[in-house]
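Here is the promised in-class demo. Please do not try to memorize the tokens; focus on the logic of going from shape to residues.
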């Protein structure tokens, strides 16, 4: 049975992490006593760090391995083409995503899980259109396997990631899109002030009636994005976000980032 990742599953994983962190702290506290039993000559051996907590968002732990995972998966973000995701930026995205997940649970949002067909359509789009994938011929099975191996990913991890991102996108659409109305005057203003100037003099521009649906969609998305950004900014201000890694402290003060395609 294929495991499906939802916000509820992720929240449960967060509780499990809290328990693991407690165990890790207990082990650290016991380290001095254990060190006394280390055979002579081995005292200088460096400790082996399996993982560590780099930030806590309302008692939800973000681990160093989560940052590594986010950076590996960033290769799938079409908005990040040609840009290397830094650990600071990865932490910003994970903080924002944790706040969104917690709010989904708090509101008990009844977001329908994405259908398998939607996940497969998104995956097919990435394999055929993502520049990094096009260069590595991801549209073939051999190229796709090589691409995943080269970036430390597995088909299962990619599918779970896409399913999770689609779930968050649906939540955002349901929460912020309802009630937004775009007037004919707004559509006409966009057509005259934004679209038409993109055409050279004498070049035939599509008639307003033909492009009105697309303009309406653009204006809707702009308003959704503005409402979402304000909402996420408030969550960030009201939440308890603590960055424990000094090298990443700047991420706590920077603007919220849901991470391109949330």
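The designed amino acids, position by position:
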């Amino acid at each position: 049975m294929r495991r499906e990742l939802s916000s509820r599953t992720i929240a449960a994983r967060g509780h499990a992490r809290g328990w693991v962190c407690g165990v890790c702290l207990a082990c650290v506290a016991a380290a001095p006593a254990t060190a006394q039993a280390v055979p002579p000559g081995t005292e200088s051996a460096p400790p082996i760090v399996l993982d560590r907590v780099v930030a806590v968002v309302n008692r939800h732990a973000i681990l160093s391995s989560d940052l590594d995972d986010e950076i590996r998966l960033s290769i799938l973000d079409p908005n990040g083409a040609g840009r290397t995701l830094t650990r600071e930026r990865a932490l910003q995205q994970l903080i924002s995503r944790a706040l969104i997940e917690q709010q989904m649970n708090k509101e008990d949002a009844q977001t329908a899980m994405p259908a398998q067909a939607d996940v497969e359509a998104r995956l097919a789009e990435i394999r055929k259109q993502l520049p990094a994938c096009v260069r590595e011929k991801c549209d073939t099975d051999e190229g796709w396997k090589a691409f995943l191996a080269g970036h430390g990913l597995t088909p299962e991890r990619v599918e779970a990631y896409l399913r999770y991102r689609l779930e968050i996108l649906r939540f955002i659409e349901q929460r912020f899109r309802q009630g937004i109305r775009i007037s004919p005057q707004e559509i006409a203003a966009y057509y005259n002030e934004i679209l038409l100037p993109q055409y050279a003099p004498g070049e035939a521009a599509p008639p307003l009636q033909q492009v009105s649906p697309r303009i309406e969609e653009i204006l809707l998305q702009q308003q959704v994005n503005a409402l979402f950004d304000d909402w996420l900014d408030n969550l960030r201000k009201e939440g308890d976000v603590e960055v424990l890694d000094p090298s990443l402290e700047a991420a706590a003060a920077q603007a919220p980032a849901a991470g391109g395609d949330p």
